[in-house]
Structure formats: structure tokens, C-alpha cells
Amino acid sequence: MAMLKRLYFPVLLVLVVLISYSVTVRSSGVPSNSYLQIEVAPRSASIELDGRGIAAGKVAVPAANHTVTVSKKGFATKSQTVSAKSGQTVYVGIGLESNSSSTRNWYTEHPDDQHLAEGLGSHEADYLNQLANQNNSFLRQLPTIYGDGNGGIVTVAQGVPLSSGGLPGIYVTAATPALRQGVLTYMSSRGYNPATMDIFFYGQNNPLDPTVE
Amino acid sequence: MIGVTFGLIVNYRGSFKQVSVKLGANLRLSIYKDLGGDAPYNYNTHGSPLFDLSTNGTVKLKKGVYDFVVNDPSHQYENPITKVVVSDSTSSVTISPFFTDQKLRDLLGSERSTIQQTMLSQYPSLNSFYTIGTDQLYEYGNWYGAVLNPLDAQYDKLHIIMERQGGSWKVEAPPQISIGIPSNPFVPSDVVDSVDQL
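C-alpha cells for the assembled complex are given below, as produced in the milestone run.
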């Protein structure tokens, strides 16, 4: 009984501090409605997200700037800061480079890691493309082909990105300004905002842009 | 008892954040505690401000919701009041409200000639193919967008975006049918969105 009495106050103290800390840290109430999709090579590297240890994969985060730090003994530590907007998923792919003789041949000795490291760049493009198709039902409807009523044909297709963001480009083939404008009207009338996409118009005649024929 | 007191002190100290406030040029700011409730802003029912700032500065705020109110006697700012949630992740807040549509229309009246002269100097053949149609200034009057209406039906209606940089205007998005947000990461997306719909 005396033992229990002696332990009562220290245990109470620890509990109160822990509860207070928990309330303080968790009371911000900022919703985690964004995601980071994290891939690292070597796979056995340690990953920290804003200083907290995590595993690779999809992680829910609040919309804000986040820093992902990847480290492994024998490799140069790398950090990447990304901005996750509300509802957005951001891909983070980090491959470490050896900085020690003990890990110089790591990638050749670990083909899985080598394959992953070599693929990080294209994984990002694939991931963004997949994400764009998931989030944009207009892209899922493509390609689409329809007649203009006068024997002409309008085609709308998705293709290689027109900008570095990695989103698929929309490629429109339409013979006249009215038909090209019609494609934009078609998109808007169905709830898709053309301004959110990169659209290239084949066949346009833009006298102010010498690169377009 | 000591544990409880210690815990409360840790909790109380941890509930404050040092918040760096970055203020737009020539602005004066007052910070009030937001009182909650249904009304979007209720700072004016709360008496004196917690802080007044006329330059960038750092303030110590308890975690919670605040109204950052820009002094705007001539009603030239679109959103003079910003509701700010101070949380664990809050370290800085930038307050720099855009001009109202009316203020931007007034500015456009005095800027239009300069902007369009710059546009014509960059595209000398513009008047042979297009007329400059609906146009608009955005944000602080530093972004300009216009629609170019073709004189001949064989050409497309185009859109153009320009930005004022260091006192002179520069084309940021050259004339095209649809400018698009992804291709223009340096132009505010709201500006691209609005100009593409002109």
C-alpha cells in the first residue's frame, strides 16, 4: 500500500503532462484532406514527414507545405519540400545516392532498388496521368469524334502533356474557328472548365503566333 | 498537484504561436479575436484590437480564430477582412488584399492606352487581324487580360494576358484560343480562368 502511495504522484504527473501535450499538439483541428504519394529508393531507407517517421505509400496530410526527408546509412540524405493543396495528391519520389564505399554498389547488388530508382521519374508522370484520369471524368471520355453536320469531323483526344505539370494535353482537330469554339462550349456546358486543361488546336490559323499553322 | 500545475503550464505555453505578419505596401492592419457565431466577421463587436500593425511584424497569438482587418476608409480592397486560424502549423500570414472591381475599372481607364500600345508594339500586325475587345485588370491592377476579336471569320477569337513588372507591361500569355492554367504556372489561376472566359 505504501508503495502504491509513493508511486501515485509520479504516475499522476506523467499522465497529466502526457494528456496536456496530447491536447496541445492535437488541438489545431486542421483537417488532413490532402495526400502525399511517397516512393523512395532504396526501399529500406528511413522516411520522415515533417520530422515524423513514416512508411512509403499514400499519407494523409493537412493542406500545407510538407518536408519529406529520406536517409540511410551510407547514402546522402535528401529532403524535398512540397506544397499540398486542399484535396490534392502530390507525388514525392526520392532516390538516394551512395556517399560511402560500403554502399557504392548497392543498386547493382539490389536490382529491385535499382529498378525503382531508375523508374522514379517515369513513375511520377504515370502517377500524374493516372490521377488526372481519376479526377477528370472529361479525360475518361476521350477520344471522342463527332461530325460537324457538314461532312467535317471534330476529334478531341488526350495525349502527351503540353506543360511540365504532367497533366495529359487535350488535342483538338477541328477545321473552323466556329468548330473550335464549339469544343470549348461543349466542355463548359458539361461542367468541365477548359481553363483547367492544356488544349492544343490543330488546324488553327493564328497570325500572331508564327509557330502555329 | 504539482503535476497538474506543471501540465497546465505546459499546455498554456504551447497554446501560443509567434506569427509573422507580412503586410502589403501602405496597409494598416488591426487584429481582433474572432468571436465565432454564424456571422462571417464580428470583430467590430469586440472593442479594441489586440494588435495594430503598419509594417511587417511578429505577434504572439493564442491558437484560435482571428479577424485581420485592413484599414480601408475608401473601400478600395476586395476583402479587407481575413479570418485567420492560428494553429500548430501557423508561422506566417500574408495580408495583401486585392483591389475591388470598381477600383480596377478606374485604374484601367488610365492604364488602357499604355497597355494596348505595348501590346501593339509586340504584335504590330494585330490591328490588321483583330480588334481588342473586352478587357480587365486583376488583383492589384498588375495583371491585364483581353479578348482579341477577329476581323475575319477565318481566324479564332484569342485571349491574351499581360503583367506590369517594374512599371512597364509585358506579355505573359501570348494570344491563343484557350490560355489554360497548367501551361501558365506563373500567372494566377484565377486570372487565367477569368481571361479565358472573357
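Chain B has two domains: 2-95, 101-196. Residues 23 and 53 of chain B are 8 Å apart (CA to CA). Further analysis is deferred to the final report.
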